[in-house]
Amino acid sequence: MFSKKKSFILKGALCIASGMLLLSCGSETPKDESVIGPVTDTTTSMAEAQEVSYCLPSPLQIASIFKKSGLKYKAGVTSSSKDASKYTTNLNKAINLGVYSADLSYAVLNKQNQEAMTYMKLSRTLADNLGMSTVFEQGDLSKRFEKNLGKEDSLAYIIAELQMVTDMYLDENDQQQITSIVFAGAWIESMYIGSKVFEIGKDKSFNNKLAEQMTILGSIVNALKVQEKKDPAIIGLIADLQTIKTIYDALPSIKNNVNAAEDTEKELTLTDDETASLIKKIEGLRTKFING
Amino acid sequence: MKNMPHIALICLVFAFGFTTIQQPDNVDKKALTTSCKKKIDPFKYDSQKFTKINFTKKSQQLEVEVPVFIGEKYRLVFNTSSLSKPIKISVYTKDKETAKREAIFTAKEGENEIVFDVPRVRKMFIDYDVPMDTTNTNASGFVVFMIGYK
Predict the structure, then answer these.
(1) Does the N-terminal or the C-terminal CB of chain A have fewer CB atoms within 10 Å?
(2) How far apart are CA B148 and CA B125, in angstroms?
(3) B132 at the A interface (CB within 8 A)?
(4) What is the structure's pLDDT at B109?
(5) In 3D, which of A254, A252, A270 has the Cα closest to residue A262?
(6) Closest-CA distance of chain B to residue A103, Å
(7) Which residues, given as ranges, of chain A have pLDDT below 50?
(8) With a CB-CB cutoff of 8 Å, which residues 30-49 of chain B face chain A?
(9) Residue range B22-71, pLDDT digits in tens
(10) Nearest to B29 among A17, A43, A168 (CB)
(11) Do A264 and B49 count as a contact with CB atoms less than 8 A apart?
(12) How far apart are CA A60 and CA A58, in angstroms?
């Protein structure tokens, strides 16, 4: 027979054990981070190939590169679609968040305050519709943006901060696919703006800039492919971007110069006809994007 | 009542074991980002990537592809302070499937915060070599890298 004291100790031990089990279950975070390491164990100790992940640049950097290469402001080249509510699927919301981000960056770097404010508001609406409303609330980003209108450097800094907060939010919520979709939209919009401001045939530097920009298209496609299980709607976007990449890879300037992409001293460039054929495809996809 | 000590013992062992294996992701990612942001200055923030590291009985090589634009100036900042064991960080211009490739940067062992100003390249491949874990603790954590441009 157990004494009352012993029984009390054992019951206490059972309570502690149960409590610990409950606590350990409760502390499990529901968020699934970008796990690219294996979870299961084997007895093998050899290094094995793991999944590759991607880190894409920001829309602001693309706009900044074009600005440095002499891209001027031209009215009417940014998205004329000012009704963010027409984008109903998450894919279209994310694509057009990218489009607006590129337009916002272009407006800010060219000191177009009213236009910048418009695209900031449109970006916020789409971010809200994607469930990312907290992003704009952090650090009073919207208010600071309004207060600093006209100050290019300050606005660029705020956009970079907004990008950082967005990246963190999407990582925390396991929505990295949105990062890739947004960048795809921003990249297409940036190439479109570039083609409309630089005159193809007159400004040869655009042929070169476009060729250099095209080198990251493969990374955009691959980054989307890694995420396609999270949102099967991405498959159509991948196919659209892959079509442009296939055309680019088959261009004589690229096909006959396969090592150029690895030669950091050699500049990639395209002929006027090649640039025009690529831009035609980019324009078509951009129209599809903004029509929703 | 006779079985009670055994049941209690099993429960305690199970509970201790379970809580040891299930290490929650209590990493303060915001603090890691803030720390990287300080080191990225005077470069402008471009993007960042958190990679979860699970130490297992197998060594692993994880790779992050980073497309960049030729002629632009970039800085990479890494923070490994949330990892309980050191990993090797190297930067290449070719992916790990390429037979002959040379690292353009390898981080010194024991450093938690690493800064690398990138030379003229078109593409970067960041490799994390994760050593095998023989202690069976199932330790995990995050390595974060931030990229900035000028």
Answers:
(1) N
(2) 16
(3) yes
(4) 86
(5) A254
(6) 17
(7) 1-2, 15, 17, 19-49
(8) 30, 33, 37, 44-49
(9) 343 578 999 999 999 999 999 999 999 999 999 999 999 999 999 999 88
(10) A168
(11) no
(12) 5
Q: Name every residue whose Cβ is closer than 8 Å to that of residue A105 and which is 6 or more positions away in sequence.
A: A59, A60, A62, A63, A64, A159, A186
Q: Rounded to an integer, what distance in angstroms lies between the CA atom of residue B127 and that of residue B65? A: 9
Contact A53 B51 (CB under 8 A): yes
Distance from CA of B136 to the nearest CA of A (A): 10
Mean pLDDT for all residues in chain B: 87
pLDDT at B119: 95
ipTM over 0.85? The verdict is: no
Judged by DSSP in three states, A29 sits in coil
Is B112:B84 a contact under the CB 8 Å cutoff? no
Residue B74 has pLDDT above 80, yes or no: yes
Q: Do A164 and B33 touch (CB under 8 A)?
A: yes
CA pair distance A275, A13, nearest whole angstrom: 75
Q: Which residue has the higher pLDDT, B21 or B102?
A: B102
> Is residue B24 within 8 angstroms of chain A, CB to CB?
yes
Report whether A102 contacts A147 (CB < 8 A).
no
Contact A98, A182 (CB under 8 A): yes
Query: Is B4 within 8 Å of A42 when comparing Cβ atoms?
Result: no
* Identity of the residue in B49, B120, B147 whose CB atom sits nearest the CB atom of A264: B120
In the prediction, which pLDDT does A31 show?
35
- List, in order, residues 6 or more apart from B136 with CB less than 8 Å away: B57
The residue among A4, A164, A176, A214 with the most chain B CBs within 10 A of its CB, best to mutate, is A164
Taking contacts as CB-CB distances below 8 angstroms, the residues of chain A near B44 are 60-61, 64, 156-157, 160
All residues of chain B having their beta carbon less than 8 Å from the beta carbon of residue A67 are none
Pairing of strands B44-54, B140-149: antiparallel
Laid out side by side, the sheet with B123-130 consists of A48-54, B60-67, B123-130, B88-92, B105-106
Angle B138-B142-B144 from CA coordinates, rounded to 5°:
160
List pLDDT tens digits, range B112-134. Answer: 999 999 999 988 999 999 999 98
pLDDT of residue A266: 75
Asked if B73 reaches chain A (Cβ–Cβ under 8 Å), the answer is no
> What is the pLDDT, as a whole number, of residue A117?
96
CA pair distance B70, A58, nearest whole angstrom: 16
Residue A159: closest CA among A184, A177, A186, A178: A186
